[in-house]
User: Which sequence fits this backbone?
């Protein structure tokens, strides 16, 4: 294993692929050793954009942010496929074109050129990525799943039924949207399900949801969320660990484990062997 300082001295492209909470510490070790022609690579624009790492005037920062999990990126790469990536570059004027080319070549090397390479900025990637995670992909979806599950259970519906309807079947709709878009999803579901789209929009507090999203965006844009996140990480992540523990101990999780086991591959059985439903 090459020490950080030595890696910085010999690298043309030094990629900070460590957790963001460690970026500042690693940067202290590598920044003084960087060669004059080195580019520093990032997988997410947050630490440069929010000032955790400040680009020295003579240095070049490049960003390649694949738009999907690392496991998906790797799986598609070995199958000769890719996923889209955002790229960005910040550098002195006389090195900027070279920095953009380094970002493009890096994105191409990990297979993203097979799907799409989109020019962006550190700011737009950081803000859009964090906001999307909070508003819908992770935060918003979890809130909707939890509230819908609990609403049905409190109304007397069996937890297993509530979990299947509100959580387990989400993948099927997500897959349709992924493959066909929202209009294509609407065309693939029943008329009753499609009519429910407008019904939900009439009854859910859409204006309150939009207002909440705007507050989320302000906290992301200002750096407030990211600073709090790094402070929690520096303290050993007590808030994050508490949230994980609470989720793991919830009735929704124990119900989910039982439901997911029903979807596992099973050997063929005779009718006499099939389990009875409770």
Assistant:
């Amino acid at each position: 294993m090459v020490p950080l300082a030595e890696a910085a001295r010999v690298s043309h492209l030094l990629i900070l692929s460590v957790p963001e909470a460690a970026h500042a510490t690693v940067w202290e070790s590598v920044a003084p050793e960087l060669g004059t022609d080195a580019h520093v690579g990032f997988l997410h624009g947050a630490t440069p954009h929010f000032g955790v790492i400040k680009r020295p005037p003579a240095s070049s920062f490049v960003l390649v942010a694949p738009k999907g999990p690392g496991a998906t990126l790797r799986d598609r790469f070995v199958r000769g496929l890719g996923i889209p990536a955002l790229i960005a570059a910040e550098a002195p004027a006389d090195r900027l074109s070279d920095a953009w080319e380094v970002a493009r070549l890096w994105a191409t090397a990990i297979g993203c050129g097979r799907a799409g390479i989109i020019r962006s900025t550190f700011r737009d990637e950081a803000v859009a990525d964090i906001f999307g995670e909070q508003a819908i992909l992770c935060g918003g979806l979890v809130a909707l799943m939890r509230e819908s599950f609990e609403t049905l259970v409190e109304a007397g519906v069996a937890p297993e039924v509530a979990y299947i309807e509100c959580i387990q079947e989400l993948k099927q709709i997500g897959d349709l949207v992924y493959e066909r878009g929202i209009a294509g999803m609407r065309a693939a579901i029943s008329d009753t399900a499609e009519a429910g789209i407008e019904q939900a929009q009439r009854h859910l507090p859409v204006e309150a949801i939009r207002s909440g999203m705007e507050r989320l965006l302000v906290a992301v844009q200002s750096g407030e969320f990211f600073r709090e996140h790094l402070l929690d990480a520096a303290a050993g992540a007590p808030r994050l660990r508490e949230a994980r523990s609470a989720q793991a101990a919830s009735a929704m999780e124990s119900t989910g484990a039982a439901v997911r086991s029903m979807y596992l591959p099973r050997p063929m059985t005779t009718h006499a062997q099939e389990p009875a439903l409770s």
Q: What stands out?
A: The mean pLDDT is 93. The beta strands are 13-15, 39-42, 60-66, 85-90, 117-119.
